[in-house]
Amino acid sequence: MKHSVLQSQLKSIKMRQRKNGSSIKHPNLSDAEAKPQKKSPYSSKDVFLTCLGFRMLNALLIQTYFNPDEHWQALEVAHRIAFGYGHLTWEWEEGIRSYLHPMMFALFYKLLALLRLDTPCVMIKAPRLLQSIFSAVGDLYLYKLSFALFGDGVAKWALFSQLANWFMFFCFNRTFSNSLETTLTLVGLYYWPSVRSSLNKAPSGSRKWGLALAALACAIRPTSAVTWVYVGLLELYSTHDRLRFIFVELIPIGSVVLGITCLLDRLMYDSWVLVPLNFLKFNFLSSGGDYYGTHKWHWYFTQGFTVMVFTFLPFCVAGIIKSKYWKLSGLILWVLGLYSILGHKEFRFVLPVLPISLIFAGYSLAALEERGSRNGEKKRSSCICNKWPSRKQLAIFFLLASNIPMALYMNLIHQRGAEDAMNYLSKEAAKGKVKSIVFLMPCHATPYYSTLHNNLPMRFLDCAPSKGMPAESDRFMMDPVSFAVDFAKNWSRPSHIVLFDSEERHLKDFLVSHSFREVRRFFHAHFKVDRDLQASVVVYAMTDS
């Protein structure tokens, strides 16, 4: 009798648990995952507006030059579409870039022109402010993904890690295709069912959104397929409707996005161009990217990605171990491993998995907070006054003290001369004081028409891949004087010449003999990066200009 009464009581308890939405903890999942899903204490609107304000400030603080692609593969192309002038690099002649990403900025430029806001100052700042909107969306979905996987305690610390990390502050708001790819990756992962645990399923039909976002990311940057192949394989393994996934969702959605992209590229290239195939041939089958330098296979693990994660690294590793959420940590290892096979490596290539590693850093910080709150209860009960800061407070101080100076230095100081020089020339050109410009420096070392915003004759030294003979830029760097003398024999003498101080010392006599004088000198860097120290960018003008 007692046994039957006990059984009936247990059944009634389980029924009440189901009604209240509670769940029994799975032994293989972390505490955060096993807890019932609750509504976030912060609305999506509040999180987005907070992130947007932060990213807009972030955009205004970026005053340095990082990588040519920020300007030459996005804004320069967009400027050409919107205003009819701008330089297309050799990649566009070879058809290995899609117009999908630059087109967004081209439409934005058109809007500025219609509103008569395309002034030098606005043209310089506006593109990064537009990018700040995309970045804020990425921040929001990092919070939402973290909340869906681990709950609010982890989500708020993951967002803190995202906003505090120096490299995200330095790179995320720049107009790289990698930045938009990162946002699409974060939003897409949120909608993929295979990324979540069995206790926290994605909303019904969300997989189609995840597929569409994955296809869009691959259309913008074909190497994004590295990420989505991993996620797709997870989905194939975990789903019960594999045929539906492949034939009803994957193929139709992928075909639609690919078709739209091909139509846009057909319109812009004026011929049929299959960009993903050309990209694959150049970067993977022919190792064309190696022309711009190579690193050892372990570079991402020993230098590249570790520098990006920076002082969050120990927290990231601890979070991976504590959470045991191998799906996401496996994605990081998968991406780093496949990119390590390629000879040409860059920090921004693995930007999409940096926020994922910061989710794990947030997990580790949340664990410190939970542990600190338990210890705090014990100390209050013992009435002992402790003057020492908690582990959580020390961790936060350590992360902010190490990342904020790095972020400010890289955004405000390091390699700012290239941007300052072009900003100066843009304002001088608007006053009619600049007639033409020659850049005697390595190729793509400054922004171009997208910053100048004036249809003046300009000339830079070419560095397109060539077989046999070194490119102009390489020949100039090998012997600046001889190259400049030969170059001047066929030029139409410019009103201004821009060069680094490292080459200026060799060309002083050449510049004086051709009636040029220094008009402005801009600080550029305290230390060398991949060449001799380029401490300053110097602008020379003709004496009668």
TrEMBL record:
EC number: 2.4.1.-
Taxonomic lineage: Eukaryota, Viridiplantae, Streptophyta, Embryophyta, Tracheophyta
Protein name: Mannosyltransferase
A single Gene Ontology CC term: endoplasmic reticulum membrane
Subcellular location: Endoplasmic reticulum membrane
Family statement drawn from the similarity comment of this UniProt entry: Belongs to the glycosyltransferase 22 family.
Keyword annotations: Endoplasmic reticulum, Glycosyltransferase, Membrane, Transferase, Transmembrane, Transmembrane helix
Pfam families according to UniProt: Glyco_transf_22
